[in-house]
Write a structure and sequence with these properties.
The radius of gyration is 19 Å and the shape is globular. The chain starts with 6 loop residues before the first helix and ends with a helix. With 140 residues, the chain is mostly helical. β1 and β2 form a beta hairpin. The protein has one domain. The longest helix has 31 residues. The chain contains five helices and two strands. It is 66% helix and 3% strand.
Length: 140
């Protein structure tokens, strides 16, 4: 062809560009989280290990959600609820998502993140709706 696009061809390229932009954003967040972890090698190893695990849980959540806006809401929510600590508890609420489930206390942080995202999607539909509820009522 002569380098010009028909209307139909241009319409097909726009969604691809949007997907590439969204993927680039997700990759940038992942890279940023990795860069945050790199200076931790010079600090106390126990503290560094906790920080690296926290970043691993956040990257896992981002991969599960595959939506930057929803991830930002989940990041705020879990940072306030448990600081991404899988050993956090508040009465009968346990783990990263602070779920009312004794089972959560014995699960890995990754499983807790999966459980929390499934709970949020089932109960609220999205992490941003759950965060909005938490902001208003102090629980989700």
């Amino acid at each position: 062809m002569n380098g010009t696009l028909t209307a139909k061809q241009g319409a097909l390229k726009a969604p691809r560009r949007a997907r590439k932009g969204k993927l680039a954003g997700l990759l940038a967040i992942g890279a940023s989280l990795c860069l945050l972890a790199s200076p931790l090698k010079t600090v106390d190893s126990a503290r560094a290990s906790v920080k690296l695990k926290t970043i691993d849980y956040q990257i896992h959540a981002l991969n599960k959600l595959r939506d930057l806006k929803q991830f930002n809401c989940l990041l705020k929510l879990y940072s306030k609820e448990s600081a991404w600590n899988p050993h956090a508890n508040n009465g009968s609420h346990y783990g990263i998502p602070q779920g009312h489930s004794e089972w959560l206390r014995t699960q890995s942080g990754m499983v807790q993140v999966d459980w929390g995202i499934n709970y949020i999607q089932h109960r609220y539909g999205s992490a941003c709706v759950a965060y909005k509820h938490w902001s208003r009522y102090g629980w989700h």
